[in-house]
Design a protein that fits this description.
heterodimer; A: mainly alpha; B: 6-stranded mixed beta sheet; 5-stranded antiparallel beta sheet; 20 strands
Amino acid sequence: MRKGGQWWAWLTFFLGMGYFIIPLIATFEFSLRMKRGEYSFEAYRVVFASSQFQQTFSYSVVAAIFTILLGVLVVVPTAYWVRLRVPHLRPLVEFITLLPLVIPAIVIVFGYIRMYGTNSWLPFLSSTMGTNVLLVIGYAVLALPYMYRAVDTGLRTIDVRTLTEAAQIMGAGWTTIISRVILPNVLIAVLSGAFLTFAIVLGEFTMASLLNRPAFGPYMQNLGANRAYEPAALAIIAFLLTWGCMTAIQFLARYAPKSSNRPN
Amino acid sequence: MTEPFLSIQHVRKSFGDLTVVKDFNLDVEPGEFVSFLGPSGCGKTTVLRMVAGFEEPTAGKIVVEGKDVTSLRPNQRNIGMVFQAYALFPNLTVAQNIAFGLRVAGAPKADQNRRVAEMLDLIKLPQLGDRYPFQLSGGQQQRVALARALAPSPKLLLLDEPLSALDAKVRVSLRDEIRAIQKRLGITTVFVTHDQEEALSISDRIVVMYGGVAEQVATPYEIYNRPATKFVAYFVGTLNVLEGTVSDAAKGTVTVGQGTVALKGKLNGHKTGDPVTLALRPEAIALGDYPGYDQKLTGKIADVHFLGSVIRVKVAVGKDIVSMDTFNKSTTPPPKVGEAASITFTGQDVLLLH
């Protein structure tokens, strides 16, 4: 590469890094200033000690777990079936799974409120549990683009058709094939999708807020509107959670089932 | 006559407007090793997949041990299959792969372990039970795939080009091993291949397929020496084709180039003056005179290729080129290009192509 080109490349790199890192460092630095005249983790202590934080965080973690389960139950068989039986419909299915990125969450949640209100034929919103279920379904929809893509990419690394046929000819039915052959071989991809889902659910505000559920997203927003240092601490905590999820994905990828075309 | 173990009756398979298998019929005897041989797209794999249950015939039926299995799902047929791409489950060890069918069938753990040990001994890999597929070579993976297919004691074994992905040396040794195991177990086997040498060396009978139909069903010896159609003659083995004209139908003589070949009794239906296509296997031809070879054609040496132990000589006879292999002898120098030469053979070895 020419020297001038290299210089520009480094400049672009440092500008990009600065764009991402400087606000983060500033937020982190600010979050440490709760006690006057000294740096401390007081804001973090206050956040962790808050019962509201614990409640909303637990609520969102439970919601995330159910969202992941729902996502896996819906996406794995769908992506598998599309690859195996109707590969020509893949572009259509991909388009459908991308819709949550295009349609704002507020539109989806208003649709839910109209469709599943107290007077509707399926009144999810008439009970707390029903609303929780609807929220989980909504989260699963929001996570669909990430979950589907992760699973589909995982399926691409294995010979779905031949493995299915090999299992079938040995007497396996569909449940056995999916649970013992397909799912274990795309487990890492499923986990990637699961961690992305986890990160999305923890930070989601619109749906939880409009369905009036005590989730972590609305709590963060509420705290941001009323306090100074704690929101900064929460932002850093949220970042760490997301990065933790990403690291977990990378770490687990090392333990993916090996194959002759993927020996390491 | 014993009832066929596998009977494929008037089977047709169409995908939309395209018919890939046309009125296919075959009876396979118990314990027989039958190979489907043909070029890509001839329908051989489609027939195998219909026997396995992965494809449903458009017409016709498939009977195994007297039972119509045409509409049964693959997991209800009790058939073992080995795939070209090994298809071992990457998340399971060798032992777990072999035990898969038994586990699905709900066999007790002790029986599974015993059978896995038997199968590992059968494929001569007793020490590799704990390995994962990616830790095995291609040949080992395919042996494990064979063990996995045989572990549940299937009625019928289907082999879908199992050796295609392997290198030449492994391919030869594994094909011998497959045949030995098949003979030992006496399991009825259908083998799909596009490799004629493989089919000729391993099979009791060969079905040569082309364009969705069985061109000839016969033993390897018959397929090679008495091909029923032009396609079989061209596809199996190397063939020298000579265009000639019937010079005297009553005497059975044919003019080829400037020579004459006597084919008494082979020219049935041909009249004097008719053009005919004759064929000769390279190994049936000698360069120059040879004891017992009563037919002779003359020409010129067109090309000589030195291949080490063998010298491939091409002789121009009229408009045709005849290729033959002669052993390399240090005492006899190879012929030179342009030299006059004669080729000899017996009238019995000449094939008249239809």
